[in-house]
Amino acid sequence: MARILIIDDEDTICQSMSLVGRRSGHDTVCENTLGGGLAKAASEPFDIVFLDVKMPDGNGLEFLPKLAQTPSRPEIIIMTGYGDPLGAELAINSGAWDYIEKGSSVKDITLSLVRALEYRKQKTSLKGSSAVVALKRDQIIGNSPKLKACLDLVAQAAGSETSVLILGETGSGKELFARAVHQNSKRGDKQFVVADCAALPVTLIESLLFGHEKGAFTGAERAREGLFSEADGGTLFLDEVGELPPAMQKAFLRVLQERRFRPVGGHRELESDFRLVAATNRNLDQMVQAGEFRADLLFRLRSFVIELPPLRERADDIKEITRYFMDKFCERYGLAPKGCCPDFMETLLAYSWPGNIREFMNTVERTVVAAREEPVLFAQHLPAPIRIQVAQTGVRHHEAPDRQRAGAPPAELPKLNDFRETVYAQAEKQYLHDLMSLANKDISAACRLSGLSQSRLYALLKTHDLHRSS
Question: How many CA atoms lie within 13 A of 231 on its CB side?
Fold first, then answer.
C-alpha cells in the first residue's frame, strides 16, 4: 500500500482523486493549500504527490522542487485544469513525474499512478542494494534543493561513461562540477585535462587538440602530444564548447565517434580512451538553428545534461559559502578567523550576483584583505558597487493617492534608477506576452525570435507569472 498526498484547493477534485487512490488500495491524504501540503510532506512519508498548479497561496510549479526534497522524496504528478504545453515542459524540467489535466479519464490517471509507483519501487530497491559512498565535491559548497539535485546528477553521471554536457551562466562553477564527475568516476585517479575553447588560438587549435609531428608547420621544431592523447584513460574537459570553430566541429565529432585521430603532419592514426565532459554558457540549440553549431555534434555532447542554477537561485547556500571562503582566505593571508555582523550577511543575500560563484569568491577575498586585522566584517567592508545596488534595490517609494487623483504632483519621486527598473519590468512583461503569442507558445520559436536561451526564457516567464497567460 502506497501513501498518496493530494494538494488541491477544490474539494471535488480531492474527493475524486482520493477515490482513485483508495480503489487501488492506497492511503490518501488531502491538503487545500501549498503551505499545508509542504508541511504535511515534511512531517509524514509519501510515495506520490498529486499537485495542482493554480493554488490560492501560490504556483504549484514553484513549490515542486521543495516538495521533491522533502524527506521521503516523493514522485510528483502535476495536475492542472488548463491544457498548456509550456506548463508541461516546465513541470517535467522541474522534476515532475507526469503532467495531467484534471479532465483526464480515471483510466489515464490510474495508469500514471501505477507507472510512477513501479518506477519508485525499482528506484528504492536499487538504492537499498547499493553501498552509500560519500560524493567528492571539492569547493562545491551548499545543500540547497537545487544544488542537491545537481549533485544527484553528478553521481549518476559518474557511474557511467557517457558524455556529459554542463550548462550554466558564466561563473556558476561548471569546471568544479566537471571535476566532480571525473573524481567520482572510475577514471578519478587518471588525468583531468582542460581545453578552454574560448582561449585556444584558432590557428593552433588543431595542433593543440590533435598534437603534431616535428616539422609539420613553421615553428614545429619537435613533436608534441595533443590534449586528446594527454586525456587517454582519463577525462577531457572541453570548456566553452560553443566557441569551437565550425571547421573543427566535424573533425571533433569524428574523434568522439571513433576515439581515433591523426596528429598534424602524422602518417598514422592514434587512439585515445578519454571520457568527454563539455560545458557552455551559450544556447547550443539556438546556435544549431543559426547554422553556427553542428546538430550531430550537439546530439553527441548532450548524452547526459547537468544544468547548474545561478547563485541568485541558491540563497539557502549563501551563509555556508560565505563561511567557507572567509575561512579559506583568512588562512591564505595569515589572518585570524573573522566573524560577520547581520548587515554584512543581509547585503550578501540581497545582491543578485550576476557573476555567480566566481564574483562571490572574488568579493569575499577582496573584503577579507580590505578588513585585514579587523575581527568582524560589516557591510561597509564590501565593495561600493555592491552596496549601492543593494541600497537602490531596497528603496521603496510611497505615493500619495489623493494628490495623484487630484492631478497634483507627487509628494515624492522614486529614485531615477528605481523608476527605470519599474518601467523596464512592465515593458519586459508585455514583451514576453507578445513574444509567446507570436510564437504560438512554442518555446523553440520564442527563443529564435528573442535570442534568449531556453533556461533564461523559462526564468523570465516564471518571474512575470506568464506560465499560462502568455
Answer: 25
Residue 131's pLDDT band (cuts 50, 70, 90): very low
CB atoms within 10 A of CB 104: 13
* Angle at 175 (CA atoms; ends 173, 176), nearest 5 degrees: 65
Which residues, including other chains, have CB under 8 Å from residue 118's CB and lie 6 or more apart?
A: none
* Cell numbers found for residue 188: 578519478
**145-309 sits in which CATH class?**
alpha beta
Domain ranges of the chain: 3-129, 145-309, 312-394, 403-463
3-129 CATH, one of 2.60.40.420, 2.30.170.40, 3.40.50.150, 3.40.50.2300: 3.40.50.2300
Across-strand partners of 271? 260
**Tell me, what amino acid is at 447?**
C
CB atoms within 10 A of CB 219: 9
**How does DSSP assign 89-120, residue by residue?**
HHHHHTT-SEEEETTS-HHHHHHHHHHHHHHH
Q: pTM of the full predicted structure?
A: 0.68
Q: Domain 312-394 class?
A: mainly alpha
DSSP letter at 241 equals: G
Lowest mean pLDDT among 81-85, 223-227, 452-456: 81-85
CA atoms of 189 and 182, how far apart (whole Å): 9
Domains 3-129 and 145-309 share a fold: yes
Cα Rg of the chain (Å, integer)? 26
What single string gives the DSSP state of each residue in 300-354?
HHTTEEEEPPPGGG-GGGHHHHHHHHHHHHHHHTT----EE-HHHHHHHHHS--T
* Chain CA centroid to CA 206, Å: 32
Confidence of residue 415 (pLDDT cuts 50, 70, 90): low
Length of the chain: 470
Work out the average pLDDT over 96-100. 86
Ramachandran region, residue 76 (left: φ > 0; alpha: ψ -120 to 50; beta: rest): beta
Q: Is 352 helix (H, G, I), strand (E, B) or coil?
A: coil
